[in-house]
Amino acid sequence: MTLAQVTSDLLTQTTTWINLHDDELKRRATLAARDKDAAALTDLSVAYLAHLGGSGVLTSPKTIEAYRIGIRQYVAHTQAHAIGILRPSRHAPQHYVSSLLAQGRKPASVQLKIAAARCLYRALRWAGATEADPFKDVRIPKDHTTGLEKRPPYTEQDIERVLEHASPHDRFLLLLTAHAGLRIAEALALTWADFDLERRRLRVTGKGRKSRTVPMSARLVEAATQYRVLYGPGGEAHQNDENGQRRRTTPHLQAFRYRTVQNAVHAMKTPFAQAGVPWRGFHAARKHAGTKLLKRTGDLATVAAFLGHSSVDTTRNSYAAVASDAASDEMTDW
User: Fold this and answer.
1) Residues 303-331: pLDDT tens digits?
2) Angle 332-147-75 (CA atoms, 0-180°, nearest 5)?
3) How many domains in the chain?
4) Which residues make Cβ contacts (< 8 Å) with residue 313, sequence separation at least 6?
């Protein structure tokens, strides 16, 4: 699905709420909150995001789905504990945080759930149903475990073993994440126009629709070339389907035959299983690229630009242990 299609669908989904007269908007929002109608409250919140959210109708489907899940969970919590949504007690928001932590959720996961609840209350205030902002001052413990410790990257040996069992399709996708450091959503959104194989450069549109240019390794260029012969415009796989590959669900100008992460995960688990490497997701491959580059350059700013991080602080927080190890190695002979 193209960005234009996603934007159009979101606009269509939210038109009902956006077009309501103020009095009717307030009435419906109040009724949904009173009845704890999770479906109506999630739709109201999505309408608010599309209308007044930071990214408007360009809000990513991933963000919308995460908020939908979080709002449904919060509404279920209010039902279970007899909490009024429009006027929760002073201690109710912090109790929700505590209940999430008691379920074994990590602080980062709790942050996401609270972000969804805050979005719900912004939507309710926008609709005029309440003036409450109950999650404004909640406290969530900091997680002092780094991302690399919680979800370590694949090792060089892991990647090599999987590549031995990978099809041209899987090899191309794995190297985009493990060598070019792309997020899986960035990789699946690529078109052939984004590739400059002669100059070994790749144009990537990342979070917040920010673009960056990423260098391609020689092996990635080789994998891209091989894959394009099969699946690019006019490729052999389009002319002869005897290889057993599924038909495309995306236009031929798209690099990959599908756009959903679920399909990509399903395909990639096969070579990982054949190689005997535990599957830890595509992000572990992206972390492999970031870790390898940081060890070679020792420059957080270079890694931040390569990975498309919003700031060097993000990179520092994620790769602090690698930077520390690199410094220790350099100081061995002092």
Assistant:
1) 999 999 888 888 887 776 665 555 445 44
2) 165
3) 2
4) none
Q: Residue 19 — φ and ψ, nearest 5°?
A: -85, 0
Torsion angle of C-alpha atoms 39, 41, 42, 45, degrees rounded to 10? 160
CA atoms within 13 A on the CB side of 271: 22
What is the Cα–Cα distance from 171 to 219, expressed in whole angstroms?
10
Assess whether 122 and 266 both reside in one domain.
no
**Which of 23 and 246 is assigned the larger pLDDT?**
23
Asked whether 88 and 132 are in contact (CB, 8 A), the reply is: yes
Greater confidence, 283 or 321? 283
Please indicate, yes or no, if residue 145 is contained in any of the structural domains: no
pTM: 0.68
Question: Are 167 and 47 contained in the same domain?
Answer: no
Q: Region of 298 please: left (phi>0), alpha (psi -120 to 50) or beta.
A: left
